[in-house]
Amino acid sequence: MEEFWGKNRLIFIDWLNSQWNIRFKIERPDINIEGSPERTLSRMAIQDISGDLFLIEKFSKDKFSIRQTVALAVHYLNLQGLDSALAYEKTTTDEFLPFFEQHCYGLTSFLHSTALQRPDYLSSKKMGDSFASFLIQMNSASVQIDSEVSLATFSIKDYIYKIFIEMKQYDPGAYNKFSPFLVFLEDQFMDAHDQLPLGFCHGDLHPLNVIWDNDQIRAVIDWEFIGIKPQIYDAANLVGCAGIENPNGLAMPMVTTFLQRLQKQKIFDRAGWKFFVEYILALRFAWLSEWLRKKDDEMIEMEAAFMKILVDNKDALKQGWGIDNL
Q1: pTM of the model
Q2: Which of the ends of the chain has fewer CB neighbours closer than 10 A, N or C?
Q3: Helix 125-141 vs helix 253-265: angle between axes, to the nearest 10 degrees?
């Protein structure tokens, strides 16, 4: 555990106890931790002498600014009633991310999650309804968040053009493979993108970033991509993740229930729904960037195949989701 504690375990534990007023007992390496480990330098489940479990995460000092923004935003959402946003615990000196030596640390309560059954979850109406409830509640809780927390804006349009510049220079094969999808987006979507209504978004909403209680959301985690983005962003990302899991999932109960509930609630402007299929496709380029970086040829081919499904079935998908006349 030296990579986590540093060279002096006892000094770190004394600091940990004093910061959060807990009484550390043991590490719990036997416990599975949800979410991506790549978003921290290190993380670990721990237990105090009362039996309470916590997750402690270690970050480099250059990540402090974004992690602080996340902490402030999630704390704000909690205060507005969004209990399912898992927040950092404040220290005894009212900090979220105190420093020990050259790193900052965040502490949250550790919540056990029901194992996600993949791809079986796509058949769950209750999961779709739970995701819709979360977005509806977050939409309400975040109404004035940008007046309290400084949040970045994000343009998937600019991001895509940047990827194509890089592919043209470093990976001409990928550039040629994915250029037809850029042509599709440039037909109408790219011109319309900058006029899409904006809102606060989680930024990476999908089933693996959730602590589940069977088919109900207990908590949503991994908030570091929060920001002001087109309202439809989180919904499009979730549906895209369902589709890449299994293209048939685009017409299965998790997705259809999710979209029907959101449409009924009318929390998104019609302009977002008009370009919903295009936005799903556009967001897949963020995932493609990761596969290109890792040189994951299998996932690159899967993304190309999925993008083609979206392009070829755009009208049928919109009709099946009930958004063709919105």
Answers
A1: 0.95
A2: N
A3: 30
